[in-house]
Amino acid sequence: MIPRIAAGFARHLTSYDTAATAQAQIADRLAARIAPRIAPAARILELGHGTGFLTRQLARLAPDEIWLNDLVAPLPEMSWPAATKVQALPGDAAALRFPAGLDLIASASMLQWLADPAALLHRAAQALRPGGILAVSSFGPGNFPELAGLGLPPGAPAYRDAAGLCADLPAGMQVLDAWDESLPRAFPDARALMAHLRATGVNGLRAGHLTVPRLRALMRQMNRAGPTTLTYRPSYCIARRC
Ligand SMILES: C[S@@+](CC[C@H](N)C(=O)[O-])C[C@H]1O[C@@H](n2cnc3c(N)ncnc32)[C@H](O)[C@@H]1O
């Protein structure tokens, strides 16, 4: 599982920045609600930084220290405040040695790729100082309803809606904010929709489920149905360690 996920993202890192407009929007929305809760000179860990949509926003908090984790992505190319110490923590977040006493652990659009996201949330909570903030986004079970409506596999894994995300937090975490969204994306045709999925690192549609002729038949069906949309259903949870 991990090598397949790693290969999917590694192959499409260059196209991700342009294609992943929904993920960019999600990172912005999460960052907007993190910012008022974090004082300058914080100690921050980001899980699954990818090409840096959320990382760039975290840099604006002028952290003292930031640890950046991703399974495959190199550190994002960006500038940092001179006083910020940046440290890479590459590899599987599930196997990570967390720094202790953190002010903020943040992660956008990554949890759903893990085999056991709840276990990671528990470990993350333990790495926070009392009063520290955990801020995450994922995708709810209603993600990509258009694909499910055609009987297609979802293509990308989903995890929990906002209520479910919060329910997976360990005891001792106080939920400060939780919300779900619906972000539709329109495409000229089914081919463009599939190319979008691939460009964002999602290549699971055909993973053992669909033959090429069957996929082509489904794409023709999508084109006959008219304008092609893909609806992202992101979920968010922000909580404080008591
Ligand atoms: C959809 S991208 C999101 C990237 C970024 N956070 C954003 O908002 O655009 C998911 C990222 O999670 C990373 N990822 C997937 N599984 C992971 C794991 N087990 N440990 C660490 N990172 C992982 C991928 O390499 C990829 O960069």
UniProtKB/TrEMBL annotation:
One Gene Ontology term from the biological process aspect of the record: methylation
Key words of the record: Methyltransferase, Transferase
InterPro entries on file: SAM-dependent_MTases_sf
Coiled-coil region(s): none
MF GO annotations: methyltransferase activity
EC number: 2.1.1.-
Keyword Transferase: yes
Keyword Aminoacyl-tRNA synthetase belongs to the record: no
Gene3D superfamilies in alphabetical order: Vaccinia Virus protein VP39 (3.40.50.150)
Stored PANTHER family: TRANS-ACONITATE 2-METHYLTRANSFERASE-RELATED
Protein name (Swiss-Prot/TrEMBL): Methyltransferase, type 11 family
Organism per entry: Rhodobacter capsulatus (strain ATCC BAA-309 / NBRC 16581 / SB1003)
